[in-house]
Amino acid sequence: MFALIQSFLHIDVTLIQWAHAYGSYIYVILFLIIFCETGLVVTPFLPGDSLLFAVGALASTGQFLDLKMIIPLLMLAATLGDSLNFFIGKKWGRKLFEKENVLLKRKYLTATEDFFARKGKWAVSLARFFPITRTIAPFFAGLSGMLYKRFITLSVIGTIVWVNLFAISGYYFGQIEMVQKNFTLLVMGIIVFSLLPFIISALRAYLAKSRKAS
Questions:
Q1: Rounded to whole angstroms, how far apart are CA atoms 164 and 86?
Q2: Residue 47, CA distances (Å) to 36, 122, 194, 210 in order
Q3: Which of 22, 112, 171, 211 could form a disulfide with 56 if both were Cys (CB 3.0 to 4.6 A apart)?
Q4: Into how many domains does the chain fold?
Q5: Cβ count near 136 (within 10 Å)
Q6: 107: helix, strand or coil
Q7: Mean pLDDT of all residues in 171-183
Q8: Lowest mean pLDDT among 76-80, 134-138, 160-164
Q9: Where does residue 92 rank: exposed (0-12), middle (13-18), buried (19+ CB within 10 A)?
Q10: Which residue has the higher pLDDT, 96 or 89?
Q11: pTM of the predicted model, to two decimals?
């Protein structure tokens, strides 16, 4: 597990190693990571924002990845992943959360339900920018009985913005020397920033519980 975390924190180095080891198959690997991160409710721990940024930065070197190829490929991966997750939620729904475990925690479902309640119809699109929520949101959309036509429209809108925003940002910022020298810190910053809504939500819940206890 520690090695996995290390590979995600040093995602730029990991991507270069994969590119050397697997050549053009790195496109398949990246497709599968984004597909699983969005399509399987049990894999919210896979990198999303940081991976897209790193992919853009690697593409800026002109050695391993073509940005014009990788952006549509990863948009397809995210869209297909969302659709799979939607139909899993529609078919099995709450049954998967009846027995809580380290991956399927009821608090994740509760947080996503709250997210949907606050963000309304745009929740599917906005969920793209929040780790864990973007993995569970399609599942919850299917579980809640949302029409697939409406879901996939919102999913595609969110996907286009999400993939392009992080990949293109990585492409241009990745060429800056200071960014190259502090890439790991930047990745950690992206992860922390992405998790900030959950940290704030957890802090509010803790403070509210403390007030009730007192």
A1: 23
A2: 10, 23, 11, 33
A3: 171
A4: 1
A5: 25
A6: helix
A7: 74
A8: 134-138
A9: middle
A10: 89
A11: 0.77
